[in-house]
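Please predict the structure of the following assembly.
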Amino acid sequence: MLAELAAPGQVVPAEPFPNGISRYAIGGLLVGLGAVVIYLGTGIAAGASTFLESTLSYVSDQSRFQQYLASRDWRVVFTLGIVLGAAVYAVFWQGGAWTTDVQPWRLLLGGVLVGIGTRIGKGCTSGHGVCGVGSASKTSIVGVITFLTVAIVTAQLVQALGVSP
Amino acid sequence: MSRNRHPLFVPLILVGGLIFGFGLAYSHMARPEVVLDFLQFDDFGLLFVMFGAAVVSGIAFAAMPRVRDRAPLTGDVYGRRLKSFDRNVLIGGAIFGVGWGLSGICPGAAYASLGIGNVTILWAIAGMFAGAYLQGVWRSQRTAAETAPAGAD
């Protein structure tokens, strides 16, 4: 009877945290801290996906991108900081470069959808997920629930279709 | 936003980005495989990244407006990140969800992924720019059509 309760259709893995939780918790605190440093100094709640459109304003005259003229320079700096911060980790902790085995077509097609969806949906994992949820914004909470649920269904479906990695 | 920028404005943005990107790399969220493992229920650790970060920012968003009125480097009023809700939040969120579930990558993690040496992620970054451009063209045209003299549509 206990065994039945403990095996609800393999939804919960035998070990929910096979890699422990410290790397995730510490990393998450640092991600939050990075956002907080910017917020304390500037009052800006920064998200990562706006960079896509603000940077396009350098090369495109589309009216949609013109609203980001004032912020596009610092958003480039923010993104460069993200790249460099991750590079510091790679050099001193990771021991060199790491590359993904996920197939390029998944990255490209997924990337296109991420680019469309985050901009239409008013935010991504950092804008809605970190700053929006941190602001107790109902819009952001609904946004996170939406993209998280759809992402789970999509990833499980792709796995079920035998696509790997 | 007032834009007589304090000389420390850009350095502070850089420092914030450095910590943010280091955290994404440290948490392994910069690796698409780790995100896919989470979405496929093989490792729930990523919950700690997202909610850990949200808790930290939540404390600042709740506390700072009570501590002082304006941010020192911009003079901007401390506020929360509140966006209006409409259909786009659901439509965009769903499109983003399909892309995130297919690729295991989101914008901030993609930039960090490049930082950890994952040059393959340039496929995803190129895709994100293409997607952002497509929706930008589409919405620019729609806005132009809506503001054009009535009767055309």
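The longest helix of chain B spans residues 122-147. Chain B touches chain A through 120 residues (CB under 8 Å).
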